[in-house]
Specification:
Shape: globular
Strand content: 15-25%
CATH architecture of the largest domain: Alpha-Beta Barrel
CATH class of the largest domain: Alpha Beta
Number of helices: 9
Bound molecules: pyridoxal-5'-phosphate
Largest sheet: 8 strands, mixed
Number of strands: 15
Radius of gyration: 20 Å
Number of domains: 2
CATH superfamily of the largest domain: D-amino Acid Aminotransferase, subunit A, domain 2
Distance between the termini: 16 Å
Order of helices and strands: EEHEEHHEEEHHEEEHHEHEEEHE
């Protein structure tokens, strides 16, 4: 773990602590992001770094004094290196920082950066899963587009899914259009072989989904996909899709076979979701230097 409060990295779990007067702890005044570690490379670190900086700006959290993007990037890579972890994830937070127990962060000494490395397994294909429609209200757009630590709606939505024997709950926005899952985006293959997903204006701008949109161009060139677009998708249209998938750093590209008990497509893992999963794995394991940052162990 790295902590700017202590000013260094520790590999002793007992020292991996956050001060209780940090406003991220008692007020939720913090933002975070997660990047995958695949075979000793940080995948899409720069996109995740850009996103936490955007989230921090929306949450009115400045960088700790003397820190800039480059320094944070170096610290994150060094933290992974110190952990010796080759497959897993790197999660990091920018917080209003410690100082007092007030609401406003005006009494905080300075903002804080924390990072932790979570050991995991090499990426692998997941079996088709079930989803349900979330009854937990989704966050309004101002909060849905930033990755703050206020994940209670996401947690309750995920727990609702688990209680119903499903993997995730899907949010619909105020206009009834499909939005996203609690920690993943959602996309569809229509019967005309169009890749469609919701606009990013009311949901989190998923780094994986954005990359998939890029990688999917290859399937368009090969004639396997007709087009790639963002649009307002009704639940009715989504449920009638040929294929449905969840997309995110955690789930990668995961086929959805049932939504609220309704079978999607032919109820089997579809060829285009598999093709997109394969493209993502290939990109994670041998993609360009821009998306794979080597960790100097
Ligand atoms: C609410 C939400 N939507 C979408 C995503 C997917 O984003 P990414 O692909 O960057 O992991 C996440 C990931 O954490 C999320 O929390």
């Amino acid at each position: 773990m790295y902590s700017s409060v202590f000013g260094g990295i520790t590999t002793d779990p007992a020292a991996m602590v956050i001060p209780i007067d940090d406003h991220m702890v008692h007020r939720g005044h913090g933002v975070f992001d997660t990047a995958a570690i695949v075979d000793g490379y940080l995948y899409e670190l720069d996109e995740h770094l850009d996103r936490i900086l955007r989230s921090a700006s929306m949450a009115k959290i400045n960088l700790p004094i003397t820190y800039d993007r480059e320094m944070i990037r170096r610290i994150l890579i060094r933290t992974v290196s110190a952990s010796k972890c080759r497959n897993g994830s790197l999660r990091y937070w920018l917080s209003a920082g410690p100082g007092d127990f007030q609401l406003s962060s005006s009494g905080c000494y300075q903002s804080a950066l924390y990072a932790v490395v979570i050991q995991g397994k090499p990426p692998s294909r997941s079996k088709g899963i079930k989803v349900v429609t979330s009854s937990v209200p989704m966050k309004p757009p101002q909060f849905a587009i930033m990755k703050s630590v206020n994940y209670l709606p996401n947690v309750l939505s995920k727990m609702e899914a688990e209680e119903k024997g499903a993997y995730a709950s899907i949010w619909l926005d105020d206009d009834g259009f499909i939005a996203e899952g609690p920690n993943m985006n959602v996309a569809f293959i229509s019967s005309d072989k169009e890749f469609i997903m919701p606009y990013f204006d009311k949901i989190l701008s998923g780094c994986t989904a954005k990359r998939i949109i890029n990688l999917a161009e290859r399937l368009v060139k090969e004639g396997r996909l007709q087009s790639i677009s963002c649009e307002n998708i009704t639940m009715e249209k989504g449920k009638k899709a040929d294929e449905m998938m969840l997309i995110g750093s955690g789930v990668l590209v995961c086929p959805v076979l049932q939504w609220d008990g309704q079978i999607i497509g032919d109820g089997k893992e579809g060829p285009l979701v598999q093709a997109l999963f394969n493209l993502l794995i290939e990109d994670m394991k041998s993609g360009p230097q821009t998306v794979r940052i080597p960790v100097p162990y």
